[in-house]
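Hi Y.,

Following your request, here is the sequence exactly as I used it, all 60 residues.
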Amino acid sequence: MAELKVTQTKSAIGGTHNQRATLKTLGLRKIGQSVTRTDDRAVRGMIRTVAHLVTVEEVK
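Below is the corresponding structure, written out as tokens. Let me know if you'd prefer a different format.
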């Protein structure tokens, strides 16, 4: 299964509670921090919620 590398590029300050909770669920705490997650529907939905705060790369 493919994996996605998600990197936080902007701060969650000023974001909604849902956006901050989504970043925490993804495992992101600091700007510049990256995590690797499996590419499934749930993760894609979380990324869509915080798309303006993160960058996504596909990892093989």
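The longest helix spans residues 17-26.

Thanks again,
Q.
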